[in-house]
Structure formats: C-alpha cells, structure tokens
Design a protein that fits this description.
GO cellular component, one term: cytosol
Structural class: alpha/beta
Number of strands: 11
CATH superfamily of one domain: Periplasmic binding protein-like II
Family: Belongs to the LysR transcriptional regulatory family.
GO molecular function, one term: DNA-binding transcription factor activity
Protein name: LysR family transcriptional regulator
Shape: globular
Pfam families: HTH_1, LysR_substrate
Helix content: 40-55%
CATH architecture of one domain: 3-Layer(aba) Sandwich
Amino acid sequence: MATITQLHIFSKVIEIGNFTKAGQALKMTQPAVSQAVSSLEAELGVSLLIRDKSRGLILTDIGEKILLQIRTIENSLKIIDQEVAAEKGLETGTIKVAGFPDVSARFLPKIIQAIQQKYPNITIELFEGSVEEVFNWITSRMVDIGFIYSPHSSLDIIPLVEDKYMAVFPPEHHLLKKSLITLSDLSNESLIVGKWGDPKAIEQLFIDKGLPYHQKYTVSNLNTMLGMIQERLGLSILPELAIKDTEMWKYARPILTDYRRNIALAAISLQHVSRATKLFIDIVKEQVN
C-alpha cells in the first residue's frame, strides 16, 4: 500500500517540477526522492509521470487524477493537524497562497505582517503567476487559496475590491493633456501588454467598439513594462492598483469604460479550507476592506 510519505514526495516533485530541488525542499537526496516516486508507481501499477529532457516532468492522465486526490489527502491531514493544535491553544500551519504580481505587491506585505503579529506560528508560502496560472493552481489544489478576477462560477469567491483601468503614457505624450481617455484615443497607439493580467479582456474592449488594437510588446514584469513606457516604446492599459504607488502614476489617466477588474479571494470550497486558511481570510478582509 502506498504510504503518506510517498504521496507527499510525489506531490512536492510535481509542485517544484524537479527531483533535485524537491529533494532539497524535503531535505532528502535526489536518488531517495526518485526511489520514492518509482516505488509509488510500482505500488500502484501505473506510470504517473514522464521525464522529458526538453519539457521536464509531464504528468500522465492517471498521474493528473491521482495528484488531485493526493492534494485532497494532504489538505485533510493539514486540517487535522491544525484542529489538534487549536485544541491545545495553538494556531499553526502553512498556507499556500497564489496571486498575480501587482495584487501580491499591493496587498500581501501588510497581510503577512498582520498574520505574523497575530499568529506567529502560521507561515505563508506565496505562488505568483498569471491569472490563468493562479486559477489552475487553485483548481489543482496546489494552493489553498488565491487572488483572482471574479466572477468564476467553478470556484467559491469572496469579493474584495473593484479596480478601474488607467492608460499609462510616456512622458510628454500628447494625450496627457486630457483628463479622461477614450478607447478611440488609444486605437492608433502601440500597446505594451503584461502576461500576468487579462490581455484578452482588454483586446475585447476594442473589438466590441469596432476599434483597431495594436499590441506591440508583451512583457512578464511590471517594472520592465513601466521602464519601456518611460523610454517611449509604447503605452499601456493597467489597473489602478498596479501603478498607484509608482513613479508613473503622474502619467496615468482614467479610461472612459465600464470595464472593471473585480479582485476576489477564491478556493475550491471555502467551507472546507483549513483552519489557518480561515484565519488568513479574516485577516485579508480586515486589511483590504
């Protein structure tokens, strides 16, 4: 019969995507990690993953199904540990939180600080990625909870804040003379788009108005984007929260559109999250609202 240790090692290998790094995280040697995964596959009688030199570790179909169940088991064990600790007067545990970069930078420092002050034995493990990656991490149970754009019919959500979009221009751009920008104003401009946000939704705004959309560059980092705007390589459409505390705020103007980014906390089931995650949710509500 497969052991809890084997299941946990397999889950960690897939989470990190590398046997050696998983071994480092688990304080095990790479051969020991590899042997544990091989033993699990032998015990189950199926191949769980494929080692591909160019693409890394790839889950088989049955591997994906089993991984989801393993993470459900891990979450249940975490709930048991935290409930027992709470019975003894302790609040402990690790919370895996996913977010996209601008929201993480805006909210998480003060949230983590509040958690540490109130619950010093609770730790937070942060995963940052695109909106799509965050959604996939939540649905695959790789994380306990995440910040997403709402609505999402397949997830339980807690609405947090509504964020409007701004046009961010290079210095001395002629449109900075306007206090309110229309999509038509931007239809002939070169746009710099961030991978972490929701570029398809932005493009759809132009399509719905019958306007041309000129995406010139795609970048992965907000600071890179802002630097490119400063160098007059293009302009961008960004959420207010992403740029409000940056030097580029003085070059931002509101856009005349009803489109908003609704940020929410999300989990597969808010009813069944761990005790530590429930405490995290309470802190988020206090700090964000």
